[in-house]
Structures are given as C-alpha cells and as structure tokens.
C-alpha cells in the first residue's frame, strides 16, 4: 500500500523549491535556451532547472519573464530528456 502522506510531502518539497526560485532564480543552472514567440518578435530565454529534494526524482524547468517565474514542466528525472521543450 502506498503512503497516504507522500502527496503532502511532495507538495511541501515543491513549495520549498518554488520559494527558493522566488528568492534567487539565478542560483539554478541554465539547462537550455528556448525561443518564445512574442508579438514583438521572438524572445530568447534561458531555461533553468531546479531539482526537488530526495526522495522525489522530479525537476522543475522554468524561465524568468521580468520578475515572474514561468514553469514549463515539473518532470520526472527519468523521462525522455526535453520532452517538454515544445511547451510555451
């Protein structure tokens, strides 16, 4: 039987990562360069990667638009790399 509190722990770990992103998004390494289509022309953004603490093998991929973090994916670490990269 699965642990019923696992969802609560995952939620807490995700909130912790989001708080760290708010405090300093540049502390996370750049993972890729992404082109985001905009009305004024394409915008090139650095996608960053924030890893959730153990035991959760998940990664948050995000970029900054002005002072707002835009989350592209919360992906399992074992998924095919870059499967989320077509998202905007």
From TrEMBL:
Pfam families: ParE_toxin. It comes from the Bacteria. InterPro entries: RelE/ParE_toxin (IPR007712), RelE/ParE_toxin_dom_sf (IPR035093). Keywords: Toxin-antitoxin system. This is Type II toxin-antitoxin system RelE/ParE family toxin. It comes from Sorangium cellulosum (Polyangium cellulosum). The lineage of its organism: Bacteria, Pseudomonadati, Myxococcota, Polyangia, Polyangiales.
